[in-house]
Amino acid sequence: MDLRAAGLDAQPFSTDGLPSSVVSYASYRDALSVLAKTLEAPNGLSLLQGPHLSGKSTLIREFLSTVSPDCAVAVVDGTNLSTPALLQSMLRKFGYRIEFNSIGELLAMIRVFTLQQASGHEPPLVIIENAHTMRPSALRATAELADLRVRQTSAIKLILASDQSLQPLLEAPGLEPLAKRMVADFHIHPLTRSEASTYLHTKLKAAGCKVPEFVFPTSVCSELWQASGGWPGVLDRIAMLALDRAETLPVAISTIERPELPEGTWDEDHAPAIEDDDEITEPPKLYVTENGEMIEEIDFVTPRILMGRSEHNDLQIDSRFISRHHMLLVRHGGATFLMDLNSTNGTMVNSRRVSNHVLIDNDIISVGNHRIKFADPHARIRAAAEGADFADTAIMKTLGDMRSLLEQENTAELPLSENIPTYGNTKTPA
């Protein structure tokens, strides 16, 4: 699908380079808090663990943006690193030009630098990614550096990031300095179902989409969450693929790929708790009948549905008893509002004529010979919604704007100035 058909200015789920937007969620915030405490602790050393595509790199970049410019930082990829390669990489990140290769000289240079920094400014910070793949000798060198001290404070702060649990490594002989300094053993947890929906919709909005719920309705977000296991990197990839495969909007569940999922790095003590917010919330439904015969069933996944006789309505009902633009249904939060658009024959809800009305589950809307049943199990209390000050809500502004638009003489094409896709506008432009 052309991204413009979904109202997008850019790919919201790009998997190359920096993410287009960063979305916070519970485990993400907890991880940032742990990393901040590591930097503040006198003997700060923490483990950051999570499987591939769990968001470790994004977390580290976000954390580094908060670190003081006075703190020297070295981010090192530990993949298969030997001791000389590890030490050389650290020194280069600290700004040194390497003119020697012996382990003794490299260690001496790092000792001098870290002790100077810790004495005069802040202890330097070293982040080693893929720490589980380092060679044993490089791990022992890291432990030796972890033992450096200035007075009662460690001369170097350490964060070891890994796709696997690092706890077994710290129990190996020679790595005691790492184990005794550990501030936190943190394992990244996946997003919950509701966090995944927020994550997807926030990224769509950041990329220019005005109504992300129209592109990925609640049911699609739920399927994407299940298919990704809640891991952000996997979620990005399958969301991008589903958007690319889609031929119409909303995106269909059939476009969602279900890859093999990575396993968490935690043990029983770090296993994620079952979340209370993982209830599936289906969109409201409209069941349209004429003289008792079902003619249409609609999932209310868009912000509004305009109903009337004109072909330009989202829900067109060709009947002489129905006005050209008869009524408007608008979703706002968890509530659905009905507004009669000064129709000739009026709109009835449960046999009572209405102009503005809050709908609840099983309400029956009557227009001419047609009945529209509104089904939303979560909308059960009308009084709570009607107690709101509608004049101060965005929804009333929308209703007022639509009334003004529909009263204009030229209504051959509805001038939807907000550029919001509506229920009937689901086809991808040629």
Note the topology.
Blueprint: H1 26-40, E1 45-49, H2 56-64, E2 73-77, H3 83-93, H4 103-120, E3 125-129, H5 136-146, E4 149-150, E5 153-154, E6 157-162, H6 167-170, H7 176-181, E7 184-187, H8 193-206, H9 212-215, H10 218-228, H11 232-245, E8 285-290, E9 293-299, E10 304-308, E11 315-316, E12 327-332, E13 335-340, E14 347-349, E15 352-354, E16 356-359, E17 363-367, E18 370-375, H12 382-386, H13 394-406
Parallel strand pairs: 1-6, 1-7, 2-3, 3-6, 10-11
Antiparallel strand pairs: 4-5, 8-9, 8-18, 10-12, 12-13, 13-16, 14-15, 14-17, 17-18
Helix pairs in contact: 1-2, 3-4, 8-10, 10-11
What structural keywords apply?
Tumour Suppressor Smad4, 3 domains, about 30% helix, about 20% strand, alpha/beta, five-stranded parallel beta sheet, 18 strands, about 425 residues, disordered C terminus, Rossmann fold, six-stranded antiparallel beta sheet, single chain
Work out the helix count: 13
Average residue-wise pLDDT: 84
Weakly predicted, low-confidence segments: 384-394, 408-430
What is the CATH top level name of the largest domain?
Alpha Beta
Examine the coordinates and then state which fold CATH places here, giving the name of the CATH topology of the largest domain.
Answer: Rossmann fold
| Proportion of strand residues | 15-25%
Q: What strand order characterises the main sheet? A: 9-8-18-17-14-15
Report the major sheet: 6 strands, antiparallel
Specify the helix fraction band: 25-40%
Which class best fits the helix and strand makeup? alpha/beta
Bulk shape: elongated
Number of domains: 3
Total number of beta strands: 18
CATH superfamily annotation of the largest domain: P-loop containing nucleotide triphosphate hydrolases
CATH architecture of the largest domain: 3-Layer(aba) Sandwich
Output the radius of gyration.
29 Å
Straight-line distance between termini: 10 Å
